[in-house]
Design brief:
This protein is of the alpha/beta class. It has 10 helices and 9 strands. Strands 1, 2, 3, 4, 5, 6, 7, 8 and 9 form a 9-stranded mixed beta sheet that branches.
């Protein structure tokens, strides 16, 4: 995650080009609405270390998710992109130890989830290759033109077609065509490439035995108004790191009050509901997360919004979220929490660890009695 003010200035530039319609390609398969209120899922970000021994790794994760009543997850896989040439690679050219998970490892994970009655879906992500850590340079800045744009989309399409093959084999409910590629969704020269990419994915899905798989895209919360291809997808995804309060209200241990968070969150969701209704698509919060630091509700996009540890602020915000979710039927399908702590993998300040108070809150929300 990078400085949100920089993102805001970038994203404001495209607001005037509000795109509420796009020409559809193929039939739209609507995602099924939740039975009572939105379901919870967690992200499993496969950063670093390439592919570990698959069996023990996946079993440890899915046994934890099953214990906490989590029946859905998103497996985040990534590739590196050279920001000049547009070349997509499995390995960083700057750090040899940084390798993306291979397809067999991902396929094993999708299949392993079934044995725990967990619906796993793939969430492909591109990272701008640089000599620092993953995510230091926001992928929303990735942009190309001319021959480089064409070559990039040829590689990206080939990657997604490979990943959708294993998704279809595992009969996953969703497949994401990207995440926060804001410059490329704003780029008018790229629109035809996006449409062709989605058309090829849709064709492959419709020609398969699992034709009910839904396509989605995870937009930054200030990008989604100008994404031109929502009408070609089955679901709108929003990475929902919008402020839940202001700096002063959040300042201090245990602040802000839960009612303040609930009021602000309700207003934000009301805006998203109006947009979902306009687009005639269900919507998911494709990412939602907070850390254990003071000011996390004012700056959810920052791993360390301050140096003061304040787990109560994080827990209060999640309580507010779970209360509000029980009123969001049927437009909001799910909330995908960022992110579950994985064994032997690089985590972040957003880690949700098993058997913590937060994990027990998630379990309580997801218990069958609540559905």
């Amino acid at each position: 995650m990078i400085n949100q003010l920089v993102r805001r200035e970038f994203l404001k530039g495209g607001a005037a080009g509000l795109a509420l319609c796009a020409l559809p390609h193929g039939a739209i398969v609507q995602a099924a609405p939740p039975s009572k209120f939105p379901s919870l899922a967690v992200h499993l970000p496969l950063w670093h270390q390439g592919s570990l021994l698959a069996k023990g790794f996946w079993e440890q994760i899915f046994s934890q998710l099953a214990e906490h009543q989590l029946g859905q997850c998103l497996i985040l896989t990534y590739r590196f992109v050279d920001p000049v040439t547009g070349k997509i690679s499995n390995r960083s050219q700057y750090q040899e130890t940084l390798t993306a998970p291979n397809v067999d490892f991902l396929a094993h994970g999708l299949e392993a989830a079934k044995s725990y009655n967990i619906q796993a879906s793939l969430y492909p992500m591109l990272e701008i290759d640089n000599n620092k850590t993953i995510g230091t340079v926001w992928r929303g800045y990735l942009n190309f033109f001319g021959v480089t744009l064409k070559n990039f989309f040829q590689q990206y399409t080939a990657l997604l077609l490979e990943l959708v093959d294993i998704s279809l084999a595992a009969q996953t409910p969703y497949f994401y065509v990207g995440s926060e590629l804001a410059s490329l969704t704003h780029n008018s020269a790229a629109r035809g490439h996006w449409e062709q990419l989605i058309f090829e994915l849709r064709t492959k899905i419709q020609n398969s035995a699992h034709s009910s798989m839904n396509l989605s895209y995870a937009a930054h919360w200030e990008e989604y108004l100008t994404v031109p291809f929502w009408r070609q997808l089955d679901q709108i995804g929003i990475n929902a790191y919008f402020p839940l309060t202001d700096h002063e209200t959040a300042r201090g241990i245990g602040r802000p009050p839960q009612t303040v968070i609930e009021n602000n969150l309700s207003r934000q969701l009301a805006q998203l509901e109006r947009f979902a209704n306009l687009q005639k698509r269900p919507l998911a919060l494709s990412e939602f997360g907070l850390t254990r630091f003071d000011q996390t509700t004012a700056r959810p996009w920052q791993q360390s919004p301050s140096e003061i540890n304040d787990p109560n602020e994080q827990l209060t915000a999640y309580r507010a979220l779970f209360n509000i979710l029980k009123t969001q039927d049927p437009w909001l399908t799910s909330v995908n929490l960022w992110h579950w702590q994985l064994p032997e993998r690089m985590g972040s300040a957003y880690n949700i660890s098993a058997n913590t108070e937060l994990a027990q809150m998630i379990k309580a929300y997801s218990l069958p009695d609540n559905l």
